[in-house]
């Protein structure tokens, strides 16, 4: 029987090196949970990089065995691969280009060669395990070349691709010297998915202008195949967040945390360290609010969690310094003995504590300059089980297309963000309730499990359509 293979750059595990041995902890992230029902079934498997470089053949063998138990198979990357493929081409060329940060793009042919080489490594790892009729679902921008590489060897396989980050307009994509190869690579798939309609539209227009393929109602006609392109906005594990927020454990943490911040309104912000998330701009808006509204001093604080990420890439190092400086300045300007405006944490928290932060906060300030979807805003809404709270959301996040009951802002409009925070602080409970409950309804319906189902059903549909066409 044909099986399904999930492929992503990172496997859904964290790997720790302890006492000369590796320890694995399965990831509890949304995607891993959603895809659990797929890769943990039957012969199905998840293939990807375990996240550490391992050179010792004995250790590699040990890791292969242990991952096998978890229904995963590793692709081992060398230190050079990580530097040139992951930190280099993926994160210093594609990531900035796709998020419209062209000033950070680095066009390095060695990085490009490494990108081709590592996509090839993934291809070989998959070919060792794939049968000709399998379904292979490839994830994200690190593996854009993989669908076509697989197609050449497995012409009858069903190949799908989903991109988790935005897809830029043609004018940006064309800046990349290897744009044609990238598009031809991804067009090896039968189904190509994006979070939003706009990403899909940008992709179709770039494909048309660069490769000449034209689309009809979301179908591209390739030489002897059709390729379906569509948007599939990703959801969260809604029940998990709602349940955790109500749990005794989380409510005890809320009591403890809140006890230290009596009579203060709390604004939560949570992001990976990334320039696309607009962290300095958000701090500047909060600074402006405190400057304009002295009456809010001592009455409102921001809890800012920044999760360390890509700290070897120069632009990320600089961003960290900028944030440190801004927070330092704000706190030294405004703090009193019993009030600190920004509680800044450069680390990640266990799930129960994350849930407590969501649950106890009055406002979530989610203002990326560009974001494929953004799950933090959805998790905040799901965690507000008493239906209080206000979500302030950037128009540049994919999620804003669904969460129209948020207070929507343009993150580049500092005064607009200041006004939105002020409005949120004054918002009446009845209005908060109306907005939160309406967003909860849609997030509940279209959760991560539904997202996986809709995508997998579409793969099936495209496969049938393909067969119909070839039998004609
Ligand atoms: C990419 C795209 C797209 C954060 N801090 C902690 C913690 N987190 C978890 C959140 C959330 C996740 O990290 C962050 O997800 P986002 O979607 O906000 O952002 P990216 O990492 O940039 O993800 C994005 C996503 O892919 C999915 O397609 O939405 O646009 O850029 O789930 O909860 N989790 C824990 N402790 C923390 O301190 N446990």
Please supply descriptive tags for the structure shown above.
472 residues, alpha/beta, nine-stranded mixed β-sheet, six-stranded parallel β-sheet, binds GDP-alpha-D-glucose
Radius of gyration equals: 23 Å
Number of strands: 17
| Lateral strand order in the biggest sheet | 5-4-1-6-7-8-11-10-9
Bound compounds, please? GDP-alpha-D-glucose
The average pLDDT value, as a whole number, equals 95
Question: How many DSSP helices?
Answer: 17
How would you describe the shape?
globular
Largest sheet: 9 strands, mixed
* Structural class by SSE content: alpha/beta
Rounded to the nearest angstrom, the distance between the terminal CA atoms is 25 Å
Helix content: 40-55%
Q: How much beta, percentage-wise?
A: 15-25%
Low-pLDDT segments, ≥5 res: none
Function: Involved in salt tolerance by producing GG-phosphate from ADP-glucose and glycerol-3-phosphate (G3P), an intermediate in the synthesis of the osmolyte glucosylglycerol (GG).
Catalytic activity: D-glucose 6-phosphate + UDP-alpha-D-glucose = alpha,alpha-trehalose 6-phosphate + UDP + H(+); ADP-alpha-D-glucose + sn-glycerol 3-phosphate = 2-O-(alpha-D-glucopyranosyl)-sn-glycerol 3-phosphate + ADP + H(+)
GO molecular function: alpha,alpha-trehalose-phosphate synthase (UDP-forming) activity; glucosylglycerol-phosphate synthase activity; trehalose-phosphatase activity
Pathway: Glycan biosynthesis; trehalose biosynthesis; Glycan metabolism; glucosylglycerol biosynthesis
